[in-house]
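quick q for whoever's on today - can somebody do inverse folding on this one?? i tried earlier but teh output was garbage lol. tokens:
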């Protein structure tokens, strides 16, 4: 097996694209899109991140996890995940590879001006991660890689294969020095400095740093240095059919009953799918805006069942005015809600949309958020036609416009879905991505 794993793929006509990184299942979505259009893709499962939202089963199977249970997944074992996958009758697709299913191990090394030092750093940072060598072996089966996340980017560096990075923001902010340890402990700083050196090397050697945010999702945390230029690489997503409002209400009743909650009886149903987090999402601004308009009975808000400010958010609203879901929802359940509600709320601090907002757009739901148009227009990229607001007052004003009929949510949803498919549709994204990777591979081989 070891010899087979290390065979190069360059002799084959079709470029084999390897994808790795569990964060928000981004690379799983890219791999699924590539495979659906007939490309030779290998999704290498990330066997470091145990959190629920980083598991492929979260994308494919229909289930829920309670608020406390979701946080506990950080400490789950892989045996627990295997048991859940078996119970849900989920199996990995044919284009997925699992490091746990292989045993070959090649020596891990980093080629650099001081290779011995950087290789020692690699081993120190990866101490205890027995799946790292086989993950690198699997990467070496591929011609070119697309990776997301700090560990994935460091492993791509070690693989020696040409690779592009699709940044989720936190990795690029870490390379930029915007996330130093919040401690004075020498051991924490030592690990941070070692890992950051390898990460910065990975960003320097990447074929490109891709994102749908020209600021690299620095947001309100800080500015990304110009030495890390961002290329437009949009996450691909298929469209969902938007039903008439009466049919949506019937579906909403079914979904809410399924997850143990009561369907609201309101003219406008609003859904907050992202984690309840004031620092990262600014959901407190939205809740204060609802208070400004007086918790109008014509509008009811459903809030996702997880996030560090979940309890604090509940204390900000009168009982019965907002439904706080008792569970976190896997993607099939979540998409049913996106298809059912009248308006989706994203974030009011980062200035860019996340995966949840894109998923809502794909379902034809209008999205209320703060979108920073300035860097997008400067880059010549497309601005999404979201309901754009940032402050409590701006959010409240838009909600009043919705309630008084000055904003047609149905029309805005249709417009947004058309934009999403034009910019993030699979047939818009995949050809451009494949061509970018092929060109990068050719440039790497010519050197």
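ok took a stab at it. sequence:
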């Amino acid at each position: 097996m070891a010899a087979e794993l290390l065979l190069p793929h360059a002799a084959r006509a079709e470029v084999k694209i390897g994808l790795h990184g569990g964060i928000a299942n981004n690379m799983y979505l890219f791999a699924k899109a590539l495979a659906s259009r007939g490309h030779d893709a290998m999704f290498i499962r990330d066997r470091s991140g145990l959190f629920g939202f980083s598991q492929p089963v979260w994308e494919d199977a229909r289930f829920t996890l309670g608020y406390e249970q979701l946080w506990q997944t950080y400490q789950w074992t892989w045996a627990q995940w295997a048991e859940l996958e078996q119970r849900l009758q989920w199996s990995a697709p044919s284009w997925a590879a699992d490091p746990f299913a292989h045993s070959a191990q090649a020596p891990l090394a980093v080629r650099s001006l001081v290779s011995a030092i950087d290789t020692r750093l690699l081993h120190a940072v990866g101490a205890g991660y027995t799946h790292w060598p086989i993950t690198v072996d699997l990467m070496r089966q591929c011609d070119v890689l697309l990776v997301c996340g700090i560990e994935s980017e460091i492993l791509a560096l070690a693989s020696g294969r040409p690779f592009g990075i699709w940044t989720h923001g936190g990795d690029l902010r870490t390379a930029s020095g915007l996330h130093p340890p919040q401690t004075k402990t020498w051991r924490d700083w030592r690990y941070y400095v070692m890992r950051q050196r390898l990460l910065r090397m990975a960003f320097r050697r990447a074929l490109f740093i891709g994102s749908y945010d020209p600021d690299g999702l620095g947001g309100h945390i800080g500015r990304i240095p110009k030495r890390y230029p961002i290329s437009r690489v949009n996450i691909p997503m298929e469209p969902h059919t938007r039903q008439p409002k009466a049919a949506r209400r019937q579906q909403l009743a079914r979904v809410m009953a399924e997850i143990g909650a009561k369907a609201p009886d309101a003219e406008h149903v609003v859904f907050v799918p992202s984690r309840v987090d004031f620092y990262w999402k600014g959901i407190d601004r939205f809740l204060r805006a609802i208070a400004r308009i007086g918790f109008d009975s014509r509008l009811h808000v459903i809030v996702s069942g997880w996030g560090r400010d979940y309890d604090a958010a509940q204390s900000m609203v009168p009982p019965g005015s907002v439904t706080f879901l008792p569970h976190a929802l896997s993607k099939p359940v979540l998409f049913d809600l996106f298809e059912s509600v009248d308006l989706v709320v994203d974030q009011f601090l980062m200035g860019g949309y996340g995966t949840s907002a894109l998923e809502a757009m794909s379902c034809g739901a209008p999205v209320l958020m703060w979108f920073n148009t300035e860097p997008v227009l400067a880059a010549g990229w497309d601005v999404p036609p979201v309901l754009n607001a940032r402050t409590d007052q701006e959010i409240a004003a838009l909600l009043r416009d919705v309630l008084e009929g000055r904003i047609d949510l149905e029309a805005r949803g249709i417009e947004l879905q058309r934009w999403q498919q034009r910019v993030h549709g699979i047939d818009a994204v995949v050809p451009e991505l494949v061509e970018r990777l092929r060109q990068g591979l050719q440039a790497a081989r010519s050197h």
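fwiw The chain is about 45% helix and 10% strand. also Confidence is low (pLDDT under 50) at residues 1-12. so keep that in mind when u check it
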